[in-house]
Specification:
about 500 residues, alpha/beta, Amidase signature (AS) enzymes, 11-stranded mixed beta sheet, 11 strands, about 40% helix, about 15% strand, globular, binds glutamine
Length: about 500
């Protein structure tokens, strides 16, 4: 049963070929067997899952099945879940049990899904390999003997879905945290338009960039997940009224004489990528051309400055968002001599190195001496990048580009902080511009590991982004059930 996609499972559930209790049991058994080794869950919720499953079967029997009724999913442990520990993978929130439900997780309850557990991630979603997690890094199932990263920050979500320990999962993408981990685990990861999914109840990293979105085995599955999680929320002031809804399978945007202009970003031509990424990218372009797409070169002049702008803006916002963890209201508290000493001890003990680094950078770029030359300058670059994308979408309908330069690296890789930051080169610009981008499998590299391509669209063109991603998925035709663990 765990070989079924979300779309297939829903069909079988609706046809009464399987029950939600059976499907949930199958996932829980696998979590019991592999969960600890893969370290993809921080908290599992088997009792809640079985209760959700029974309720789902009852609804279906009563002819009352909801949109995703019976789908066993993982929730990135950044979304507050009422009565269930929500850690953000930080010691600061190790024992934090929220009294409220995030909008996104509530929407999944409303859609009838089954909660399997809370997925591991980088601490406060800051990182690229999920190695900054206080609970240790999740593992990429593709080549278990090599102990590769499942990516970050949504690495627990990708590890779980790629291993068949969840049918699909939520992620958040501030600078690439859905797309990069999805790409290197052979999955589909969609960063929707900023504002499409509510941030309410999602632990804040950089509020102007944080974007919840789905991680799934197929594009159709991702589209269903996004339909469940999108929608206006009066509790999030940046939430859009635009909405998103669809049923699977998605309609094609190519073939049958349909015209589509697909842009390639000129500035990315000079960025070094692996030979495999290059040849897969070229192969997929050839496929799209043969289906009738016209390929045009577009320019986003400042796109290579996106990294610098991101690593100013994101830490600046993080430094203010994380000021709330002071040991006074909730989370960890380490008693000191006086109140200032308590602040100091609490924050020194509660935050890991990377989170402290971000707060120091953020505080520095916001200081009066640095504000104009760093923060304001980064804000200008951000504006220019957003404007350039708008101009590019006058010349093309959608853009494609690599999701990463290469395949999953070993967790033991010893990179400097700047080397980690540089891995976000292909993803951060879309967050700065607030536009949708979906990473979809492009094929397998020579070493047998998956690589991804991004489809990027104008604001609120999420549907067409997914539709084109589906054509690429079909052309690449990889089997994203790693033999190591999905036992083919
Ligand atoms: N790797 C990026 C960072 O460390 C992106 C993280 C994210 O999207 N949450 O900030």
């Amino acid at each position: 049963m765990i070989n079924l996609t979300l779309t297939e499972s829903l069909q079988k559930l609706n046809n009464r070929e399987i029950s939600t209790v059976e499907l949930t049991r199958a996932y829980l058994d696998r979590i019991e067997k592999y969960g600890a080794d893969l370290n993809c869950y921080i908290t599992t919720t088997p009792e809640r899952a079985m209760a959700d499953a029974a309720a789902s079967d009852a609804r279906r029997a009563a002819g009352d099945a909801k949109f995703l009724d019976g789908a066993p999913i993982a929730m990135k442990d950044l979304f507050a879940t009422r009565g269930i520990r929500t850690t953000a993978a930080s010691r600061m929130l190790e024992n934090f049990v929220p009294e409220y439900e995030s909008t996104v997780s509530q929407k999944f309850i409303d859609a009838g899904t089954v909660l399997l557990g809370k997925a591991n991630l980088d601490e406060f979603a800051m990182g690229t390999f999920s190695k900054t997690s206080y609970f240790g890094a999740p593992i990429n199932p593709w080549q278990l003997d090599k102990q590769l990263t499942a990516g970050g920050s949504s690495g627990g979500s990708t590890s779980a879905v790629a291993s068949g320990l969840a049918i699909a999962a939520t992620g958040t993408d501030t600078g690439g945290s859905i797309r990069f981990p999805a790409a290197i685990t052979g999955l589909v990861g969609m960063k929707p338009t900023y504002g499409l999914c509510s941030r309410w109840g999602c632990v804040a990293f950089a509020s102007s960039l944080d974007t919840p979105g789905p991680i799934a085995r197929t594009v159709d599955d991702a589209a269903l997940m996004l339909s469940a999680m999108a929608g206006h929320d009066p509790k999030d002031s940046t939430s859009s009224t635009h909405g998103f809804s669809c049923n699977a399978p998605l309609d094609p945007v190519l073939g049958n004489g349909k015209k589509l202009r697909i842009g390639i970003i000129k500035e990315f031509n000079d960025v070094k990528i692996s030979d495999d990424m290059k040849s897969l990218f070229d192969a997929r372009i050839r496929d799209l051309k043969s289906m009738g797409a016209e390929i045009v070169e577009v320019s986003i002049p400042n796109i290579l400055d996106a990294l610098a702008a991101y690593y100013i803006i994101a830490p600046a916002e993080a430094s203010s968002n994380l000021a709330r963890y002071d040991g006074m209201r909730y989370g960890l508290r380490v008693e000191g001599r006086d109140i200032y000493d308590t602040f100091k001890k609490t924050r020194a003990a509660g935050f890991g190195d990377e989170v402290q680094r971000r707060m120091i950078i953020g505080t520095a770029v916001l200081s009066s001496e640095s504000y104009d030359v760093y923060f304001m300058q980064a804000a200008r670059v951000r504006r220019m990048i957003a404007d350039s994308f708008n101009a590019a979408f006058e010349q093309c309908d959608l853009i494609i580009c690599p999701s990463s330069a290469g395949t999953a690296m070993p967790l033991a890789s010893d990179l400097t902080p700047l080397e980690y930051y540089a891995l976000d080169l292909f993803t951060v610009a879309m967050n700065l511009a607030g536009i949708p981008a979906c990473s979809v499998p492009a094929g397998l590299a020579q070493n047998g590991l998956p690589l991804g391509i991004q489809v990027v669209g104008a604001r609120f063109d999420d549907m067409r982004v997914l539709q084109l991603a589906k054509h690429i998925e079909t052309a690449a035709a990889i089997d994203n059930r790693p033999t190591t663990i999905m036992g083919k």
